[in-house]
TrEMBL record:
It comes from the Eukaryota. InterPro entries: Cu2_ascorb_mOase-like_C, Cu2_ascorb_mOase_N, Cu2_ascorb_mOase_N_sf, Cu2_monoox_C, DBH-like, DOH_DOMON, DOMON_domain, PHM/PNGase_F_dom_sf. SMART domains: DoH. This is DOMON domain-containing protein. Belongs to the copper type II ascorbate-dependent monooxygenase family. Residues 64-91, 149-165 have a biased composition (Low complexity). The keyword Plastid does not apply. Residues 113-140 have a biased composition (Pro residues). Residues 210-341 form the DOMON domain.
Length: 819
């Protein structure tokens, strides 16, 4: 057994190259097949031949997926060698629910943001507050004049880009975003708190009737957040933060909030309260009168009630240290919860309540006009919009990947400065899982129109495997430019960077959409628009995108045991890849996007240099599938050649009825990937992901070989023969005995087994002769990419290196919070 495995490993490199030949696939998509064992033994095929059916089928469906981890530890070698596939298991009777991942259910009533925010009316003079529980100190340092970055040249200009000269200043380039490197964060001065262009100020309307408006701003100089709420009611207001239960349920496991308002006599009432599932099985804090916190940590700074509106200005320290009753405001996503009472009797229940998911500390650089839905509408503005719109009748199956081609609107270099998505209806929105766009690079000497105009007129094509009726030149469109996931809101770059478009003349962009159709409806026409906002005022630096994490579909690399919380997997971008990809150049990471599926409970991008771990690049311990926001970092991070990155995900399978969950494309399967933006651009360094291919690991999961099953769209076991035909999900649920020892060993392997990385050049197309290319353009049949002999690297991280620890101001944890 072991010998066979060693042999496989030895031959895997050349096989890998062969497999790479068929990577026509959209992008970084390298599937597990390429990295894994199941491609072995394929015949080499010539460039004129189609790849074998099995491999064609294996070419992937979701271009943003994949995985990895560290190695280092093979302490248990002997033990592992003694393991054998046949030593396995008592076989349990096969029950369908063991194998069927639950269908993804759309959230029943997510709050849809209402119409554009209107600033609240100028408040009348404020009556002096004191709430019943504590006197509210007046806010210190509230500005009397606008923050003017030009008057404080040493301070960074965290400005929203204001594209219309008529609307005041434009974000200054000179001030820079923030100093790269490991300097302490340098947020804007508190005098800018009131500035509508302050990126730490967010204006949102929380309900469809526009009754509840919220402005929040982070005051970094005092480590607190100020929430101004203006609500159309003369009754009470409920407002606060909550953590969701796992698997994206709507119940709140813990809630930390205030109930407050203004009495008829002009006095106020205001209490800091808490609630939790443990206290309240009903789980909604506004259906009963929840307990008052012993420590009152929210402060009412000012309030008024007039013309049927109530205004409260509330502040709260980022971390109150009331670990038993408050939720710290961190880089994690949090759920803002709200409720509107119709009277001042807080015992009166209300139906007017909801929630809004947010990263409270993430800067938002979206220009005002985009927030107002007016972005790119003004022809005289330097900011224009390129709409990539697609309408598609979804097939009657759960998961579909569909690509359409779009010709960029100009022929001279532009900078894309931000993105947004538009869905005409909620139904359209609910059936889209993610979008990705990739830049197409026609090979030298080939007119991009010849290559890509045809496909751009066909209405698109299925795009996760090669064998479609109308093969399209996907292999030339592999440089990922942007990615959007469920719940994502607009994303804008800071002022000193932009994403190049039409740099070398005519350019085509392919838009890949993953459609979700869990109800298997046949009548769904889904329309969506990806809006790219661009300007000809080219900025200082070009950005590129880098995909990291575990290779997709990671069926065998991500295996979460049944009924567990916190099982982790890691995907690495090893030193050899950053050395090769960065070609001696230091770059700066400025934004990141985490991606896992509904079993995901936490995710982070980690960064290693030499023998130490640097602070995480981004992290979220409350991972929320329904809110996948691309985030600008609070502080840029310098990435050096030789550094290592890794994406780590944790999973929660306690809501899966005792099923183990394997990796896959579907929403109910697991995934662990993500992207970052960095500058300056390094052409070709756009993907760096790994797969677990270690023989001990494969022994442990009792598999020797697997293949992609086109019909089932699942990875299926082919060897050992007694398990052949089972999907990986079925196999692990049927043939693994999930003892605590087994789970510990699986976890050890997931974190420390050696992994194989793929970090090839995904930008430039193969060097083929002009004659061949012309012929290809005529035939519209497409050649495979040549192998990249340097594509493969083992990812090794020392096991015992000092690890970064998340800073905790208060040295205790909320006992109500899970984990
Ligand atoms: C794995 O399976 C594929 C077909 O499914 C086969 O071509 C290949 O030879 C197998 N590899 C090994 C090592 O058995
Ligand atoms: C919040 O309200 C206070 C009191 O009215 C006001 O001074 C402050 O400017 C407001 N902050 C924002 C960001 O609107
Ligand atoms: C704010 O928090 C940071 C990080 O925890 C800390 O270094 C800083 O001293 C705090 N500032 C204030 C004013 O408390
Ligand atoms: C782009 O799409 C948005 C959203 O659908 C729409 O409001 C806008 O009018 C479109 N703009 C252009 C120039 O097509
Ligand atoms: C444009 O062409 C130059 C020179 O060949 C190349 O360095 C650059 O990467 C190209 N840009 C794009 C976006 O293809
Ligand atoms: C969906 O759109 C196509 C054309 O775009 C049309 O033929 C079809 O009837 C539409 N189907 C539904 C259910 O609206
Ligand atoms: C778990 O089983 C219950 C009862 O059979 C069912 O209602 C529920 O949908 C199942 N949940 C999942 C995630 O499959």
């Amino acid at each position: 057994m072991v010998r066979v495995n060693k042999l496989l490993l030895a031959t895997s490199k050349s096989k890998f190259l062969q497999l790479f030949l068929v990577n026509f696939v959209l992008t970084q998509v390298l599937s597990d097949y390429q990295g894994g064992r199941w491609g072995q033994g394929q015949q080499r095929w010539s460039q004129d031949q189609r790849p074998p059916q099995q491999l064609r089928a294996s070419i992937r469906r979701d271009s943003q997926l994949s995985s990895s981890s560290w190695s280092g530890g093979s302490q248990n070698q002997n033990q592992n060698q003694q393991r054998s596939l046949r030593s396995s298991t008592t076989r349990r009777p096969l029950r369908p629910q063991d194998f069927q991942p639950p269908r993804y259910q759309f959230p029943a009533s997510v709050t849809q943001p209402g119409p554009p925010y209107q600033p609240p009316p100028i408040p009348p003079p404020t009556s002096q507050p004191p709430g019943p529980n504590r006197p509210a100190p007046p806010l210190q340092g509230m500005p009397t004049s606008r923050y003017d970055p030009s008057s404080s040249s040493s301070e960074p200009s965290w400005s929203r880009w204001n594209s219309s000269p008529r609307r005041g200043r434009r974000g200054g380039r000179g001030g820079g975003w923030s100093a790269p490197g490991n300097n302490p964060p340098s947020p804007p001065p508190s005098s800018s708190l009131n500035d509508p262009l302050n990126p730490y100020r967010h204006d949102v309307t929380l309900d469809p009737e526009s009754r509840f408006k919220l402005t929040w701003v982070v005051d970094w100089s005092r480590n607190l957040t100020i929430f101004n709420v203006t609500v159309r009611t003369t009754g009470w207001i409920g407002f606060g933060l909550a953590l969701r239960t796992p698997e994206q349920q709507q119940e709140h496991e813990v809630a930390d909030f205030i109930i407050g308002g203004v009495n008829r006599d002009g006095s106020s009432y205001f209490t800091d309260r808490h609630d939790s599932l443990a206290l309240n099985a009903g789980a909604d804090p506004f259906t009963r009168i929840p307990p008052i916190d012993p420590s009152q940590d929210w402060t009412l700074n000012s309030f008024w009630e007039r013309s049927g509106r109530t205004f409260l200005s509330i502040s709260r320290p980022l971390d109150t240290c009331d670990v038993a009753h408050d939720i710290p405001i961190t880089q994690d996503s949090l759920r803002i919860i709200w409720a509107i009472g119709e009277t001042d009797d807080i015992a009166y229940h209300t139906k007017n309540r909801g929630y809004y998911d947010a990263y409270l500390l993430t800067p938002d650089l979206t220009p005002r006009e985009v927030l107002d839905g007016q972005g790119g509408q003004d022809p005289s503005s330097p900011m224009q919009v390129f709409n990539m719109t697609t309408t598609f009748q979804i097939p009657e199956r759960e998961t579909t990947y569909w690509c359409t081609w779009h010709r960029a609107p100009t022929n001279t270099k532009q900078h894309i400065i931000g993105f947004d998505t538009a869905f005409p209806t909620d139904q359209d929105r609910q059936h889209v899982h993610h979008l990705l766009i990739h830049r197409c690079h026609a090979p030298p000497g080939i007119d991009p129109d010849d290559l890509f105009e045809g496909p751009s007129n066909t209405g698109g094509s299925e795009c996760y495997y090669y064998d479609t009726p109308n093969p399209l030149p996907l292999q030339y469109c592999r440089e990922t430019m942007h990615v959007w996931g469920v719940g994502g809101r607009p994303f804008f770059f800071p002022d000193h960077v932009g994403l190049a478009m039409s740099e070398n003349g005519t350019e085509y962009i392919v838009l890949q959409v993953h459609y979700d159709n869990p109800e298997l409806r046949s009548d769904l026409n889904v329309t969506l628009t990806l809006q790219a906002f661009y300007t000809d005022e080219v900025r200082e630096h070009d950005v590129s995108m880098l995909g990291i994490g575990q290779q997709i579909p990671a069926a065998t690399s991500i295996i979460s045991p049944p009924n567990t919380r916190g099982h982790a997997t890691v995907g690495i971008c090893p030193s050899a890849c950053t050395e090769k990809g960065l070609q001696g150049q230091e770059v700066n990471i400025l934004a990141g996007w985490l991606h896992t599926h509904t079993t995901g409970s936490a995710s982070r991008f980690m960064h290693f240099r030499g023998d130490r771990e640097l602070p995480w690049i981004i992290s979220d311990d409350n991972w929320n599938f329904n809110y996948q926001q691309f985030r600008v970092l609070n502080q840029e991070r310098r990435l050096l050649p030789g550094d290592r990155l890794s994406a780590r995900c944790e999973y929660d399978t306690t809501r899966r009825n005792g099923s183990a969950v394997a990796g896959g494309f579907g929403t109910a399967e697991s995934m662990c990937t993500g992207h970052v933006y960095y500058y300056p651009r390094q052409a070709g360094f756009s993907m760096c992901r790994t797969v677990t291919r270690d023989e001990d690991y494969w022994d442990l999961i009792k598999m020797r070989n697997a293949t992609w099953d086109t019909e089932r769209r699942q990875v299926v076991v082919t060897d050992p023969p007694e398990y052949a035909g089972l999907t990986v999900m079925e196999h692990i649920n049927r043939n693994i005995d999930w003892t605590p020892e087994y789970i510990r060993e699986l976890q050890r392997q997931h974190l420390f087994a050696p992994q194989v990385a793929q970090c090839s050049n995904t930008v430039f197309a193969p060097e083929i002769s002009l004659r061949e290319l012309n012929e290809m353009a005529r035939r519209r049949a497409f050649l495979p990419l040549p192998p990249d002999p340097n594509a493969e690297h083992y990812a090794i991280n020392p096991r015992n290196m000092p690890r970064y620890r998340k800073p905790q101001q208060c040295n205790a944890r909320n006992p109500l919070i899970r984990g």
